[in-house]
Specification:
The chain is an alpha+beta fold. 40% of the residues lie in helices and 19% in strands.
Length: 439
Amino acid sequence: MTTTKMAFKYRAYPTRSQERYIDECIHSCWWFYRYVLHQYEDDYKQAKANYQKEVLSYYDLNVAYHPFWFRREPGKVKIPKEFYPLGAPICHRGKGIFSTRQLLKVLRRDQPQFRKISSDVMEDVLDRVNGAFNKFWKNNSGYPHYPKEKDYCSITWIDGRTGKIKLFENDNLLKLSKISAPIKIKYHRPIKGKIKRANVLKDILGRYYVSLVCEFDDVKQKNVNEESIIGIDMNIKAIDESLRSFITLSTGEKIDVPRWYTQYEEKLIKIRRMISETKFGSNKWKKYNRLLKHIYDNIKNKRNYWLHNLTRKLENKYDYIIIEDMDLTKFYRKRDNPEEATDMELANDRSHRKAWNETPFGNFKRYLGYKMGNKLIAVNPAYTSKTCNHCKNINYNLKREKEWKCQICGNILDRDINAAKNIRDAGIIILKNTKTHDN
């Protein structure tokens, strides 16, 4: 038996006073996020300067050497993780996560407007900043940025033992701490398990949504039929302006992705031209700008509806789904390195980049992840397209061909279907090893 988390999203209809309170909370949390990130940034820069000046600039085999001994400049300095084994170098009013908790206490004591906000909501802001900085610190991701006010649009209540989140299912009401009256919601789908978090979101059109994160026990299936396991190959490199192949299943089925953005492209160009010709801030400008937001909202809703239907069908039909363990963010970045541009066939080809940006590979993985839970397995994608599924021969000379003939067994293989079958076989091996280890 394993513990599973699932989110249930509902439309919320707060009153005027509740809307004002939620908007004030979002604005205060946005300011607090930037304030805490500024403290992190100051401490990190100071620690980096001290590290460069006094402690280390050359680190090898846990032995510190000063660059002066080698008669050379220290150059670009990066603090090794061993220097701070407990996390990122944050020293403001303490060490580690305790420093930000003390910072919150001082802020709530000195500024009364923060006392109106639930402490759980403010602590969630600390967790967001800490998570963003730790991603930069531990996973070598991008440095945390200061969000704009229009981009910070959600706050989160964390339900502990005090029961700060209460759902009245029969009355379609949700009670959150520090809000005087319960919020009316469209309770169209019953929750499953116990509520752990409640995220209140305000979208670009001013509508409010509530996402309830619930936790429940999921019974682990012991006997698994291999026919109920499927492998999925994501056709990332095959996407271009004309070809819309999205994923390929190990059963041989290929699924194309609709062109949502392209369908509205002419209308978007027309509305953008109308916005540019009107005076900024005028009534016509507001009217056209809201119309533009509606179109983007329609594109997002159509994409999410299609993705939810696809992932739900796969979840209902198969017990286990095997996908590729790939970092999809690098495919959407602009290529400065010519070698990477050649490999991904991007270079200055705008049609490829445009087609990739409207193809939701990341959301597809995310939706499958929380629907399947532990039944979604990611495998190493290396040589899945170049390995023959019949004789396991590797064709190192394979480049961009959609079909190729194996030189050992003589089978003619479809590149995508062959890759999906290899992904499925690799996942079955992982499942068998996990089952043997559990026994």
